[in-house]
Structure formats: structure tokens, C-alpha cells
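User: For my dataset I need records formatted as: sequence, then C-alpha cells, nothing else. Please produce one.
Assistant:
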Amino acid sequence: MLFFLLFAVSTQAQNSKEKILQNLLEDLVENTDEQRDYSEYVEDLETLLENPINLNIATVSDLEKIPFLSELQIANLLKYREEVARMYSIYELQIVKGFTPELLENLQYFVFFGEEEKTPVNLKNALRYSRNTLMLRGQRGFGERVGYQKKQESDFANSADFEKWQKRRYLGNAWKYYVRYESQYKDKYRVGIVAEKDAGEEFFSGTQKRGFDHYAGFLQVNDIGILKTAIVGDYSPRFGQGLAVWGGYDLGKSVSFLNVSKRNEGLKKYSST
């Protein structure tokens, strides 16, 4: 049995947004066969909540950012928009094939129909309006394994057994630590760093004077001029239909996620260890 300590802080958290994220995540977990890390899925939804999509001007690529919309639903939506020229309310979509009341209940938080406010993309606005997230996690098993016990040479029958134990014992404590910091401005850029210490590894001592035994970072920039996506650091490929290439998430079999397939999303930052 493992003990998990999870603490997350978001500078722009809101109760209504947290509730919809929780509902969608629970729906996904309950209807997905595999166990996996859903942090990227949550991050994508948080980005959409902070930057809702204007359905009156959205392209196919824009709508594909909403993970619970299928290709057929997107096609039906664009066909309806072409017929009416302009949409004014989420309730209009009730007549669009495939848009159930349950789907619209979730969708309303990620879209809007008014005029889009243009905020210049510059360093001043990025520093002022960026969303910053810090996650700290600690994990350890119950019970003490032999390798963590403190023993003296007198505890062994001979010096040879003591030397063998010295080579096998853990130099660090039984805790596993994980730290992640990320800063994001709309869907224009993301920058972050991840650090992890495995159980049994030393921490700011001995052979690990720099603290964690693993560090990783990334910088992702989107839609700047002719540049669609550029990533420096760790990344995850999301293209193709083969499991060996596509590194994203499979959205399960519930009503909300029915008929959703893996989409070609290009490259995305990777912030797990």
C-alpha cells in the first residue's frame, strides 16, 4: 500500500471550473480501461477554460482542441454555422446532430459566441496574465525494507556479510519526491521544470549534492507568426494512429467521449518523468 501526498496550487483557480474539470476527469477515469497519468489531459482542459474558443470563427484545428468533440460532431457544427452564418447561444446547438444536453452542459465552459477580445501578445501581458502552477508530491511505502535499516558490523556474523549488506543498502530515505512548476500564457507559450527523487536515492547529500536525481524542463511556443509549434526540451509526439507513435490519451467509451479518435496534434510538451 502506498501513501500519497499531493498538493497543488493554482493562482487562478475557480470553483465552477474546478467542478467541471473534476466531473470530466471522473467520467474519463471510470470509462477508460487503462491506468495512466491524466495530468496532460487536465492541463489541456485548463488551457481551454482560460481561453474559450469563439465558435463563430473557430476552425477545424481550433475545435479539435476540445478533446470530447468527435470529428463527426465538429463537421456537423461547422455545417450548421455555414447555414446560419452566426450563432448566438449554446442552446442553438441542441438541433445539431450529435450535440446532446450532456455534451452541451460540458461544452458551454469551453466556448463563447461574442466578439473576441484582442490582447496583444507581448512580454508585459505574458508576465501579468500568465497562469502559474506548482505541484508537490511525496510518496512512500508502509513498512521499512531491510535496505533502509541502520545496522552496525556487530549485527552480522562476519565482516563479509557486513560488506555485502553495505553494497546493497539504500543510501537515501524511502521517500519519493516530485516537483513541477509551470507558467502558461493563454495558448501562446508554456514553460516549466520537473524534478524527481526516487526512493532510496540521496537528497542534497553524498552523491546527490544537487538534490533531485532527475531534472527536466521545456519551453513551448504556439502560433507566433508562421511558427505553429516549437518546443525546446522534452516533448511528446501526437500524430498517427499507431500506438507506437501517438503519445496522447484515449478518451474511453462514455457518452461524453463516444466516438472520439486519436487526432494528429503534432508535438506537445512532455512534463512527466
